[in-house]
Structure formats: C-alpha cells, structure tokens
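Repro:
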Amino acid sequence: MPASRFTRFFALWSGLSAMLLPLSAAASTPADLGPGILLPWQFSPIVFGCVALALGVYVNGLRVRVVAGRRCGIARPFMFILGVLLIYGVLQTRFDYWAQHMFYFHRLQHLVLLHLGPFLVALSVPGRVLRDGLPHRLREHGADALLDSTGFASLRRFLLSPWRLPLLFIAGIAVWLEPTVHYYAMLSWQLYDFMNLSVVATGLLFWALVLDPEPAPPARIGYGQRILVLVAVIFPQIVIGAILSLSRHDLYNVYGICGRLYPLSPVTDQQIGGLLIWGPGSMMSVIGMLVVLSHINGRRRAARFYAPRTHSKLVESSS
C-alpha cells in the first residue's frame, strides 16, 4: 500500500538522520562535520525538528486514512514529502555551505525556500492529512478547537491578506538582497537562520493562499484575485533580477570575504544569481497561474457534470 511505502521511507530517513545527529551536534565548528555531502554544515535543531515533525505527522495521517479506507493517492504525498525534503536539503546539507560561499548558490537556495519547496507543499493540500496524523486527543480537543476559534480566524485573515502577503513575499527577496543587510545576514549565523526561516514561512503562506483548490468561500480569496496576486509579484522579481544581472559592479563583497568555492568573477556570480531571480523565480508565478486556471476548469467541469443530475432529481421530486 502507498502508506506503508511512505512509512518505510520515513523510517529509513529518520534512522539516517538520527545517526548523523550526534556527529552534527557534537561538532564545535562546521569544519568538524567531515566531507559527507548529506551532513549539515551548521546543524539547526529547529529545522531538523520541524521537518521530522511534519513528515512524521503526515505519514501517520496517511496511515490513518488508509486504515479507514480513504484513498490517499500517490501524487499529493509525493509532492509534500519532496517539498519538505527539498527545504531540508538546502538548509541542512553541504548545499548550505555552497550557498554561503557563492551568490548564485545562495539564490538557488532561496529559489527552493521561497518558491519550489513551499509550492510543492501547498500544491499537495496537506491540511486534512496532517490533521488526521495528530494524536486523537490533540486533534479533537486542541487542533479542532483552535481552527474553529475566532482568534485563529482573525489571524488567518491577517496572515493571508491578498494585499499584505504579496508585499511580504517581495520583501522576502528585496530586503535580504539589500547589500548592507545581506552583508550582515551572511556573517551572523543568528540573522542568517532568521533570514532563511522567514523566507520559508513567507513562501508557505503565499503559495497556500494562491494554490488553494477551493473557491472563496471557504478559501480566503477567489480565483481571479489569486491570478492578480501572482501577476503582482512577477514584475518586482523581474526588476530585481534585471538590476543584479545587468550590473557591472560587485554589490556583494561578503562572498569575497568568506571565500568563493572556485574562481569566478564576482560580477559573473552576481549576474547568474540575478538571472535566477529574473527567470525561474518569475516563471514560478506563471506555473502558479496555470494551477489556478486548472482549478477553475475543474470547478466548471464539476458544475456541468452535477447540474443535470440535480435538475433531474428536482423534476422527479416535483412530479
């Protein structure tokens, strides 16, 4: 069964991570972690804990749904697990070291943290599976009560604002790319961790808003507004990417201080990073629009399918 496969996969992944955890936590400096590409460059208990908790609850939710005879499919679990592991991979493997020593690797990292990873997680629509994966008491007396509370509804309206969230999304790119802010973020591990985690949180909120398959209500905004939101974040990314990729001056000398992975012109490094914002970053919004359009098309097909049945039932009841 699909759930059992995912359970075995998660058990294997957790076992490997558990074996790496003592070595990572005991290391006094990043250099002590050894050459293993899957070892964390700078171990983060927060990232490890959140990833392990998310995967554990999700896989348990799959198990519960299979036992109850509810279909889970393959695509959505695959997207959720892949999205979470991509986020983990760019934060807790040797890739994080590369991202601290080459600007374009840093932009690849944030392409995953802000776009690809959260996009896959949101596209998997994991809410119900995660709820089913919680312990019974926590689900019945904690999660459900919280979701039904007015406080949570107010927080949801605030966080998933169609005006505020796109600004926060662009700020997650622009603020951290301001040369002075970027300089200190790359040299302070506390600020560096805050930068990465805030980018992930922003990406999850943004893509959850625009990729929700449900219409409004119960979704926060309608399909048309979601397309407008996606269009709104394209142009700032194009502008930021164009500024970096067309610049003739090195704006990020911090990578020269940290030392680059291999000889590459600072301007070329910066231009490649700018192109990653300009091209793939903007293209993710286009892909998001295609997903929204597919939701609209699916709703229309469903309406055409159920409308004749509903009409015939009304005729039969009246006669």
